C-alpha cells in the first residue's frame, strides 16, 4: 500500500504547489509598466536649449502625453530633477518652482530657484499674459492623445545660470521624476537627441534648438495605487442574475482609514464631510459599498436582434470628493470589429495589435456628458452600443462580456468568469472553482498523511 501511495502523495503535493503558483500569477498585480492595450504609450519630456546667456542658457521644456487613453487630471503634474553642477533658475515663464531654496549668496538680484533638486508645477489658467508661453497654464492638466491631441502637451520656459555657455560645457540634468499628481511614473535616463525644429508663425521659415535632451516616463498602475480604482459588474436580458463587483475589489471598509474615508450615502452629516474634504481631493471619499471602488462600470446585454445585439454601458461615480473631467473608457471585446453605432459617447478603435480590431475607446461628448459628477443622483453617465453579429458571435460561456475594461487608464477588476450570467439552458451547469480544487487536494493530502 505504501509503495503506491508515495508517488501519489508527491503528485498531489506538486500539483497543489503548481495550482498555488497559478493562483498567485492570476491574482497578484505585476509591477511592469508595459500596457498591452497601449504598448507605445509614454510621456516624453523634451528639453530644448534655445539660446545661450552670459552664464548659462534659456530652455523650453515640453511634456508630450503620448498615452492614448491615460491623462493627467487636476491637481496636475509636477516635474523634478537634479542639477548636474551648481545651476540655478534665474527666471521662469509658464511654470514655477514650488520652493525658492537658499539664495542668500546672491546680493543684487535673487534667482527664482536655488535648489539643487527643484520641483516645477504648471501655472493656473488666467495667468497674466507676460508670464505665459505656448502650451502653458492649464493647471497641470494634460489630456490623452486620442481624446484631445491639441491639449496633450504642456510647456514652460526657464533661464538657467551657472550652467556653462556652450554645448561643450553644459551638463545634462539627471534623476527626473514626474508626479501626475501622485506616483506611478518612472522616468528613464536623459538622452541627447537631434535638435528640435520649429516653424515660424507664417510657416515659411524653420528654426532649430541649439541642443535637445529627451526623457521618457512610463506609467505603472501598481506603483500609482496599491489597490485598483474601478470594478466591473455584469447583467443580461436572458438571466435575472446581476453579477456585482467582487467584494473588496478596491479595498475593504475595515482598512479604508489608510487610503481615505468611507461614508454612508444617507448619512445626515454627508454634506459637511464632503465640503471638509475639499473638491477634487487626491484621497478618495468613497461611498460605503461591498467593493469600495471609486468607480463602477456596468455592462448590460440589453437586446438581441437577428443581425445585431445591443449593450448598455453605465459608469457610476462613488467618490464624493472628485468630479472626473474628460473621463474615458477602454473595452476589449472581439465583436468591436463590427461596431455598428454608438449613442451619446465618442468612439475610436485603438487597434493595439495591428490588424486585430478588438479594442474600443469611449469618452463623453463635450459640454454634454464629458463630466462624471461626484457621487450622488447625477453621478453617472450612460450610453448604448449596437454591434453587428459576426461568425463567432454567441451568448454562451460569457462570450458577450468584455475581456478587459479600463477607466481613465486604470485596469478595472472583473468578476470571476464562473459567476457570469449564463443562458437558461446552461443553468444546470456544473463547475468546480480553482479554490475548491486546491482545498480538495489539500484535504486529500492531509488524509493520506494521517493514513500513513
How would you sum up this structure, described in words?
The chain has two domains: 43-223, Immunoglobulin-like, CATH 2.60.40.290; 227-434, Immunoglobulin-like (Sandwich). It is mainly beta. A hairpin with a 3-residue loop joins strand 18 and strand 19 (308-317). The N and C termini lie close together (9 Å). It is 12% helix and 34% strand. It is elongated and about 85 Å long. It has helices at residues 2-27, 221-224, 270-277, 434-451, and strands at residues 43-53, 56-65, 78-82, 88-93, 95-97, 119-122, 153-161, 174-179, 185-187, 191-193, 197-199, 206-208, 211-219, 230-236, 239-243, 261-263, 285-287, 295-304, 308-317, 324-325, 328-332, 339-343, 345-349, 359-364, 371-372, 380-388, 404-407, 410-411. Helix 1 runs antiparallel to helix 4. The protein is built from four helices and 28 strands. The strands form seven sheets. Strands 1, 2, 4, 7, 9, 10 and 13 form a seven-stranded antiparallel beta sheet that branches. Strands 15-14-18-19-26-22 form a six-stranded mixed beta sheet, with no helix packed on it.
User: How many angstroms does the end-to-end distance come to?
Assistant: 9 Å
- Tell me which CATH architecture of the largest domain applies here: Sandwich
- Low-pLDDT runs of 5+ residues are 1-9, 15-31, 427-432, 446-452
Q: Structural class, from helix and strand content?
A: mainly beta
Helical content (DSSP H or I, runs of 4+)? 10-25%
Rg from alpha-carbon coordinates:
27 Å
Mean pLDDT: 86
Percent strand equals: 25-35%
Q: What's the overall geometry? A: elongated
Mind describing the biggest β-sheet?
A: 7 strands, antiparallel
SS field, number of helical segments: 4
**How many separate domains make up the residues?**
2
CATH top level class name of the largest domain: Mainly Beta
| Total E-strand runs | 28
What CATH calls the topology of the largest domain is: Immunoglobulin-like
